[in-house]
Amino acid sequence: MAGVNASAVLAAQARLRPYLAATPLHYAERFGCWLKLENLQRTGSYKVRGAMNALLAMRERGDQRPVIAASAGNHAQGLAWAGYRLRVPVIAVMPGNAPQTKVAGVAHWSATVRLHGDTYDEARAFAAELAEQNDYRLLSAFDDPDVIAGQGTVGLEMAALAPDVVLVPIGGGGLASGVALALKSQGVRIVGAQVEGVDSMARALRGDFELRESATTLADGVRVKEPGVLTRELLAELLDDIVIVREAELRETLVRLALEEHVIAEGAGALALAAGRRVAGRRKCAVVSGGNIDASVLAQLLADVRPRAPRRPRRRSRDIAPPTRAASVRPLSPASTASAPSRPVEQPTPAPTPEVIPA
Looking at domain 6-44+148-304, which of 3.40.980.20, 2.170.150.40, 3.40.710.10, 3.40.50.1100 is its CATH number? Predict the structure, then answer.
């Protein structure tokens, strides 16, 4: 199927095990959702999985060419780290407005950085031109079988949780495709998340292939004008639904994640959880895909966004201690206990002692 299948995801897991540890699962009680914390992955994003798997697969095939990639930041950082570990030369083409945190992260791992254009698509066209001129291996951030298989290992690590719904952010579709390959056979619903005005995959799956300029968004990691061909084929068969999130919802979710769950996420990293507010599920799990946010952007969000207080959850009857059998107190029914806050029993105020005034 589209050059990649569930067996390829299992093979990727075996390749990556010596290099990448599994990221933790965290239950966000106020959101009623589990979180797969890929913001704690090497280089701060799940993207390193696909990049490392692609380089290891290249080595198995005897391909020793330098690798070039276009990226808004996270794919470039993952590829730079993988290239550093495996001694493979890496060139990263990034948009001129890429976050400085991500540009610095790429340069830190000794990769060559070329800034070009203002969008991912302009950077991708330039990277393809350089690859053709210099016989580099052009590695797509999402539309590559090895990359998709590597991203699918995120799904394999969630399988032990036995979720009924998994929420995944979608830009080009590599992560959603890989996770769907890993989990769909277990009966898990796969729901994608995109931002209003940055919904090229949702439109493509409806048959609308017109290329439009993406809106400016906090989720720069999913700002892709043209989704992948392989990923579109996979998601057309495996994806259950796509939720379109408003920018204000995304900003509020990111701030709540930081303040209530102490989880630092970038815009795309908070996208799946923002979509989760509209998806019902007994055991939901959202992928926090990355945490590489500029400190100045986070500081501005914390100063500007005032999230609404979350609704108080209903107390479940099994969480309530059985009432005491006091003769003077009538036990409350479970329904009234759930709706009325517990208050201490007021004790009668003792009568004051009379003051005696000597004659």
Answer: 3.40.50.1100
